[in-house]
Amino acid sequence: MVRIKTKEAASAWIGLLATVIVAGVLFSLQAKGVQIRWIAAAGVLLGTFTIVTFVALFIIRKYVSYKLKPIYSIVLSRDVHTKEIFSELKDKKVEDIGEELTAWADTNDKEIARLKEAEQFRKQYLGNVAHELKTPIFNVQGYISTLLDGGLEDELINRKYLERAEKSIDRLINIVNDLDTISKLESSMNKLDMEKFDVVALAKEIADQAEMEADKKGIKISVKGAENLPSPFWALADKHYIGQVFVNLIINSIRYGKEGGQTRIRFRDMLDKILVEVEDNGLGIGKEDLPRVFERFYRTDKGRSREQGGTGLGLAIVKHIIEAHGERITVRSEPGVGSTFSFTLKKVNLQDIK
Ligand code: ADP
Membrane spanning segments where (predicted)? Predict the structure, then answer.
């Protein structure tokens, strides 16, 4: 099998084929008794070869450039390694190359859009972090300057300003701790320390720790195991991180709960999963805010969140933790009625517990 590699060779082959056909016709005419002068015949054959070869070359060039132009424009409009692409496309049909390159360009466009989005997110995140840190830092600076400018000797303000500075520093520590948790979660997604533990007992322990905070608003916290299941209720998860999920959700239910309200933690059996619900009858969240509450630094009421010591990162951390476990968290809420945060955990059957 002859491999034709260039346009010129292809044209020459077409010219040769045409010449052979014409020679065949001349032979058959001679066989039928037509007188053929061989000098003229040679001229006809040479002419046929030359004309057909050049016409074929012209047509092939037109066709190839027609097909390749859009391909070039796609490739050259991108900063890609054309060498690699062409070596991959070497043995493909011209017709398929166009289609494949368009698909490739589409994939690239999507990837570029994703990277641009990530870059935008990174910039916004950095801006948010700077903004969140700025307020408490400037507050501390203000209080210290006032104290140094004579406030220290003023019995009326010296203690008050120091206490306020301390509050701002506590706020800074909370933000930095939350940022640290997020970056740890992002860098070690797969390094969860999975263990079997009684998730109802863990929730009770955290609820007890939050009792003092809840009492300030007269909020009652109740933890109930699944009705049809014997307590303890075992989960397979990272106990430390799930503890943090309970802390953040319970603290939020108090922070955004109403005076004399209720926080209920319930567990439902879902075959191989446990569904955990943290429900309150507090402020609730508006429909337009609901899809965004898990975003970093998103708050429905900035003033209230900050005043209550919120960093705006609590739910982002919760979502990170649950998703790192390969599970899901959702929220249902109605303003003035309350909110329910629900997440799943892997269940461990009692017979599997040694
Ligand atoms: P924050 O530190 O501000 O509490 P979170 O990430 O924990 O940050 O929560 C984000 C926002 O979601 C809060 O500022 C608040 O507006 C809203 N939110 C969270 N939990 C509740 C809840 N249980 N009830 C009403 N709103 C809530």
Answer: 12-30, 36-60
Would you report the helix, strand and coil content of the chain in percent, each value rounded to 5?
60, 15, 25
Task: For 340, list phi and psi in degrees, rounded to 5.
Answer: -130, 120
> Can you tell me the mean pLDDT for 246-264?
97
Confirm or reject: Cβ of 315 under 6 Å from ligand 1.
yes
pTM (2 decimals)? 0.73
| Residue type at position 226 | A
pLDDT tens for each residue of 220-252:
999 987 665 555 689 999 999 999 999 999 999
Any ligand 1 atom below 6 A from CB of 314: yes
- Closest by alpha carbon to 296, among 122, 138, 139? 122
Residue 315's nearest CA partner among 212, 219, 181, 123 is 181
CA 315 to ligand 1 centroid distance, Å: 7
| Ligand 1 centroid distance, CA of 200 (Å) | 23
pLDDT (tens digit per residue) in 136-173: 999 999 999 999 999 999 999 999 999 999 999 999 99
- Residues 229, 232, 238, 243: is their CA dihedral positive or negative? positive
Return the closest-CA partner of residue 253 out of 193, 314, 296, 192. 314
Cis before 291 (ω within 30): no
Q: How far apart are CA 314 and CA 335, in angstroms?
A: 20
Residue 285 and residue 263 in contact, taking contact as beta carbons nearer than 8 Å: no
Q: How many residues does the chain have?
A: 354
Write out the H or E segment, with its range, that includes residue 76.
helix 38-76
Which residue among 247, 248, 253, 255 has the greatest number of ligand 1 atoms within 8 angstroms of its CB, and so is best to mutate? 255
